[in-house]
Amino acid sequence: MAAKLKDVAQEAGVSLATASRAFSSVDMLAPDTRRRVLEAAQRVGYDMPAPHRSRTIAVLVPDVSNAVYAAMLRTIQEKLWPGRHRMLLADTSEDPARETELLETLGREADGVILCSPRSDPAAAGRAVGSTPLVVVNGEAEQAPVVLMDVEQGLRQATEHLQSLGHDSLVYVPGPAASWANRTRCQILTDLAAQRQLDLTVVGNQSADVHGGLAAAAAVAASGATAVIAYNDLVAMGIQAGIRTLGYRCPDDISIVGIDNVDVAAASDPGLTTVQVDIDKSGSLSLAMVMDQIDGKPVHTGPARLGSQLIVRGSTAPPPDSGTESVTADVVAGAVRGRRPRTGSTRR
């Protein structure tokens, strides 16, 4: 009969937990104690597990200051810590050439690579990392697993919500031109607007931050649209601040919808209506996929799609002079709250 771990513990004169640590958490035991457990394991014929090896995972993001990537990195770090694995973080600063160079460097230094929102050519990433396991988040890749935060359902809900409020003209403020997520969101909105017979204006590309939203505010106001959907929450909040300086109010004059549902979206004034994506899940799933590749396990061949959901807050309301009382639903809290009807609010 094969020896069990409890036999090792009894032979070494230690607890079962201490015996387990000798094989799984080496740094938690004194060297003499671990040696005593290993010698006992040999004497009783215990089949010792392979020694644990710490892994190094490189994670590349286009902008480490973006709240989406910060949340994703936090999740990856939390998942890595129990195994005492290490994370190498690189910020590509939205630069495709820097991204490729970092992939080449980290591909040699790390056991696996997670590339978030790539800005380089899909084929370039695979060439750059060589044989090192690679997972791409929110982007395209050749011969590498992909995790996608799919916003189609959430944007479908957003356009339905805005149309039900009375909006028939929308404007989309896009993010970086090299972003797969931006191209996908623009195409989804174009298709949805055509299906619902909504007028859609797409303004120029902007940086994926508050500054991008501030820069787009004048174009949003000039578009004549009564509602705007932004590339992400940060751009949406920049638009909100920018139109205020131009004499417009949100949502009295222009309704605003973001994408991501970062923490600060709920704290903005008014609270930001947004399409929620599963940021934490994208981090944990991409890590699991790259670790499976490292361990030689089968990996998901097609894109792993994570769903989305509209969260309605105070930044959306009926358009000016619609004659409809504004009612918004706080989906997060599960409560419906009424807003007082506007008195004489008009577009300036």
UniProtKB/TrEMBL annotation:
Annotated HTH lacI-type domain residues: 3-58
Keyword Disulfide bond: no
UniProt xrefs under SMART domains: HTH_LACI
Protein name in the entry: Putative LacI family transcriptional regulator
Positions with biased composition (Basic residues): 337-348
CDD domains named in the record: HTH_LacI, PBP1_LacI_sugar_binding-like
UniProt xrefs under Gene3D superfamilies: 3.40.50.2300, lambda repressor-like DNA-binding domains
Annotated spans, Disordered: 314-348
PANTHER family (alphabetical): LACI-RELATED TRANSCRIPTIONAL REPRESSOR (PTHR30146), TRANSCRIPTIONAL REGULATORY PROTEIN (PTHR30146:SF138)
InterPro entries from the UniProt entry: HTH_LacI, LacI/GalR-like_sensor, Lambda_DNA-bd_dom_sf, Peripla_BP_I
